[in-house]
Amino acid sequence: MPRHEYYGEDGTTEKEQCPRCGDTFLAEHEDRKHCGKCGYTEWL
Question: Could you tell me which residue ranges the Small ribosomal subunit protein eS31 domain spans (predicted)?
């Protein structure tokens, strides 16, 4: 999904961005959120 589809008409998004990179969205998996750019992972 292209990045622009994550944003609403008002320019906001509900997707969580990586706290390390700041410019990458976290992929949402069943048991974790993961950044494909730097490898940051949040276990749920």
Answer: 3-41
Dihedral pair phi/psi, residue 31, rounded to 5°: -115, 5
Annotated binding site: 18, 21, 35, 38
What pLDDT does residue 2 have? 52
Provide the number of structural domains found in the chain.
1
pLDDT at 27 over 60: yes
Task: Please report, in range form, the residues annotated as the binding site for Zn(2+).
Answer: 18, 21, 35, 38
